[in-house]
Amino acid sequence: MDIISDVLLGLGALAAAIYCLVLSRRLRRFNNLQSGMGGAVAVLSAQVDDMTKTLEKARGAAGQSASILSDLTERAEQSSRKLELLMASLHDLPEPGEPPEGEAAVEQASEPVSEDKEPDLPPSDEAPKSIPMFSSNRRLEAAE
Asked: How many whole angstroms separate alpha carbon 130 and alpha carbon 143?
C-alpha cells in the first residue's frame, strides 16, 4: 500500500509540474509586450495618458471660449438695449416737413436783420435752405 501511495504521489507531483509549465508558458505569452496582452495594456495606458492631456487642453480652450462668448454676449445685449432705445426715440421725431409739436420753431438767425444792413449771404446765388443743428441727440432743421 505504501508503494501505491508513493506512485500516486509522484504522478500527482508530475501532473502539477506539467500544469505549472503550461501556465508559465501561457503567462509569458500573455505578458509579451510586443504581441500579447501586456503590449495591448501598455498601448492602452499610453493612449489614456494622451487622451487625458488632450481632454485637459480641450477643457481649458472651452473655458476660455465660454468666457469670451459670455463677454461678447454681454456686449451684444448692451448694444441691443442701446439700439432699442434709439429706435424708440425715432418714433418721437416728427416727420420731415412737419413742425415739431409743442416746441417752438428754431429760427435761422439769432439777430434780426435790419433793412439798413445787408444780410450775410454765401457767395453763391442760392441761400442755404436749412442749417443742421444738434440738440439732445436730435437733428433739427432751422426754418428760414
From this structure: 7
